[in-house]
Amino acid sequence: MSKFKRKARILLVEDDLADVELTIETLNDSKIQIDLDVVNNGVEAMAYLNQQGIYQNVNRPDLILLDLNMPKKDGREVLKEIRADKNLKTLPVVILTTSSSEEDIMKSYDVGANCYISKPVGLEQFNKVVQAIEEFWFTIVKLPSEAGS
Fold first, then answer.
1. Is there a domain that residue 111 lies in?
2. Which residue has better confidence, 74 or 123?
3. Taking the CB of residue 108, how many other CB atoms lie within 10 A of it?
4. Are the C-beta atoms of residues 47 and 53 closer than 8 Å to each other?
5. I need a labelling partner for 5 at 20 to 30 A (CA). Which of 73, 121, 126, 142 fits?
6. What are the φ/ψ torsions at residue 31 (nearest 5 degrees)?
């Protein structure tokens, strides 16, 4: 049973439509009620997080799933901007990417990623990864938005 008293809100920053669809499908089977918002590049992610333009009425996410390799502004730049912003820096950011490069892993942690996960190739493994992220972040971890609860 989830400790969340409301729906958990996840921002998925992902440009690969197949990965978006797999994530949605996996989260739809969740035991936890999840509101998933999706943006497909870093520019949209920052507009969302700063509640600009079409995103002016969105709620702050509880967790960000961030791909590294995207058009317009990549995940590395987004992570740097999040960690440099006093209003956003406490947001948990999970890097969920195809890269298993040691350099990407080190740079992500150096900039402040909360964890780094290389996307598995198979559907079953991908589902297990998304379920594990959900279970860990929404049943075990105490998130900043709940600090006053």
1. yes
2. 74
3. 23
4. yes
5. 126
6. -80, -20
78 Cβ neighbours under 8 A, 6+ residues apart: 13, 42, 45, 46, 66
Domain, as residue range, for 119? 8-137
CATH number of the domain encompassing residue 15? 3.40.50.2300
- Residues in CB range of 51: below 8 A, 6 or more apart: 57, 58
Phi and psi angles of residue 80, each rounded to the nearest 5 degrees, phi first: -60, -45
Dig out the tokens for 70 from the structure. Answer: 């995207």
On the question of pLDDT at 62 being above 80, the answer is yes
122 is a domain residue = yes
Collect all residues with Cβ–Cβ distance below 8 Å to 9 and sequence separation of at least 6: 34, 35, 36, 37, 59, 60, 61, 62, 63
Calculate Rg over the CA atoms of the chain. Answer: 14
Predicted TM-score of the model (pTM)? 0.87
* Residue 148 confidence class, pLDDT cut points 50, 70, 90: very low
Indicate whether 15 belongs to any domain: yes
Higher per-residue confidence, 55 vs 6: 55
Q: Is 116 helix (H, G, I), strand (E, B) or coil?
A: strand
What's the mean pLDDT when you consider all of the chain?
85
